[in-house]
Write a structure and sequence with these properties.
The chain is of the alpha/beta class. It has two domains: about 240 residues, 3-Layer(aba) Sandwich (Aspartate Aminotransferase, domain 2); about 100 residues, Aspartate Aminotransferase, domain 1 (Alpha-Beta Complex), CATH 3.90.1150.10. It is about 35% helix and about 15% strand. The chain has nine helices and 15 strands. Helix 4 links the parallel strand 3 and strand 4. Helix 2 packs across helix 6.
Length: about 375
C-alpha cells in the first residue's frame, strides 16, 4: 500500500526507508539487546551512533575542521535566545527581517542585547528580499543574522551574502532550519548555521548548531551552562543528556542522503538537483494555471515551502478535503498567511509533487 504524501511544513515527512530501518531496529539495535531510546548516552553503542552521524553530516555539508557541530535541544526558537547570549559580547547585533521567523528571532534577541534591523522586506509583505546594497550594517556589529529560508512566507536566499563586500567583519549567522541539507553551504561566508531538525533531518527535539571555533567561548555570564557553546562543545554535546533518538534518526537520514542518486549526481548534489526539479514543476504549473497564485518574487521563491492561493477563500475547505481524500496531506497554509502551502522537503519524491499537481489541475477544472 502506498503511503499518503505528507506536505507538512514541520514536523515533516521522513524517508520511508529510514522509518523502516528505525522500526526494524526499535527493539534491538545491532544485536545490543537494547533499542536506541533505552541506551545510555555515554555508552559505547550510542557514542558510535553519535560519532557516525556527525562524520556523515560533516561529509555531506563539507564542514571545515575549524567548525564545531553541536547537537542541542530547544529548537531554533531556543537558539534565538542562546545565540545572543553566546555571541553578542555586549555589542549590538544586526538582524535582516525577511518573514515571520526572522521577526521572532529579532524580538527574542532584544532580551539579551541591542538589536538593529539592518534591512527588512515588511513593506513588500515578505514577498521579496532586501537588496544587499540596501543593508545598513552597524559599525562593529557582533553578528548579522538572517533566516535563509522563511518557512511561512516561502522566501529563500539562493545565495548567501558575502558580508565582507558590505564593509563588515561581523560573522553571518543563518537560521537554515527549513532548508538545511537541501543544498550546500558556503562556509567561507558563514560563522554560525543553526537548524531545528524537524524539517529535513528528523523528528522534533534535535537542534543542530554548526559554529566556527573562534566564535565559541564568549558567553554572557547569565548564560545557562547547558546553553554555553563552549561547555557544549567541550563535552561533545553530552554535558546534559542529549535527544538521543532524534540524533539517531538524523544519522539514518544522513546515510540516506549519501545514498541518493540523480543521473550522474550523488549525495547532496543529487538532493539539490531533485529539489530544483520539484520546485520548478510546481511553480511552472502555478504560474501558467491562471487559477492558483504565488505572490513571492521569482528570484527568491523557496524550493522547500511554497505558499499558494485559490481565487476564492470559500473554496479552501473543499480543496483540503479533496486533497486528503487523494492522500495529499497537510496542505493548509499557516494561519498568519492563509491559503495553502506545499512543503517539498528532501523526503518528498517527485511522484508526490506530480500527484499534487494532477489533483490541482482537476480541482481548477471543476471549480474554475
Amino acid at each position: 500500500m502506498t503511503r499518503p504524501f505528507n506536505f507538512s511544513a514541520g514536523p515533516a515527512t521522513l524517508p520511508e526507508e529510514v522509518l523502516q530501518q528505525a522500526a526494524a531496529e526499535m527493539l534491538d539495535w545491532h544485536g545490543s539487546g537494547m533499542g536506541v531510546m533505552e541506551m545510555s548516552h555515554r555508552g559505547k553503542e550510542f557514542i558510535s551512533i553519535a560519532e557516525q552521524a556527525e562524520a556523515d553530516l560533516r561529509e555531506i555539508l563539507s564542514i571545515p575542521a575549524s567548525y564545531k557541530v553541536l547537537f542541542m535541544q530547544g529548537g531554533a526558537i531556543a537558539q534565538n535566545a542562546i545565540l545572543p547570549m553566546n555571541l553578542s559580547r555586549g555589542k549590538r547585533a544586526d538582524y535582516i527581517i525577511t518573514g515571520s521567523w526572522s521577526q521572532k528571532s529579532a524580538k527574542e534577541a532584544r532580551k539579551y542585547c541591542e538589536v538593529h534591523v539592518a534591512a527588512s522586506n515588511e513593506g513588500d509583505h515578505h514577498t521579496t528580499l532586501p537588496d544587499y546594497d540596501s543593508w545598513k550594517i552597524s559599525d562593529n556589529a557582533a553578528y548579522v543574522h538572517v533566516c535563509s529560508n522563511e518557512t511561512i512566507h516561502g522566501v529563500e536566499m539562493h545565495e548567501l551574502p558575502d558580508l565582507s563586500t558590505l564593509g563588515t567583519q561581523a560573522p553571518l549567522v543563518i537560521d537554515c532550519s527549513s532548508h538545511i541539507v537541501s543544498r550546500p553551504i558556503d562556509w567561507s561566508r558563514v560563522g554560525v548555521a543553526y537548524a531545528g531538525a524537524q524539517k529535513n533531518i528528523g523528528p522534533a527535539g534535535l537542534t543542530l548548531v554548526i559554529i566556527r571555533e573562534d566564535l565559541i567561548g564568549h558567553a554572557l555570564a547569565i548564560t545557562p551552562s547547558a546553553f554555553d557553546y563552549r561547555i557544549v562543545a567541550d563535552n561533545a554535546s553530552m554535558y546534559n543528556t542529549p535527544p538521543t533518538y532524534p540524533w539517531y534518526l538524523a544519522g539514518l537520514v544522513f546515510q540516506w542522503i549519501k545514498r541518493q542518486r540523480e543521473g550522474d549526481l550523488t549525495g547532496l548534489a543529487a538532493i539539490e538537483a531533485r529539489n530544483a526539479t520539484k520546485a520548478q514543476l510546481f511553480y511552472d504549473y502555478v504560474d501558467q494555471s491562471g487559477y492558483y497564485i504565488n505572490k513571492v518574487a521569482t528570484n527568491c521563491r523557496s524550493r522547500m515551502n511554497i505558499p499558494f492561493f485559490l481565487p476564492d477563500d470559500q473554496l479552501n475547505e473543499a480543496f483540503l478535503a479533496g486533497a486528503k481524500a487523494q492522500g495529499l496531506l497537510q496542505l493548509k497554509g499557516h494561519k498568519s498567511v492563509g491559503g495553502m502551502r506545499a512543503s517539498l522537503y528532501n523526503a518528498m519524491p517527485v511522484a508526490g509533487v506530480e500527484a499534487l499537481l494532477a489533483y490541482m489541475k482537476d480541482f481548477a477544472a471543476t471549480h474554475g
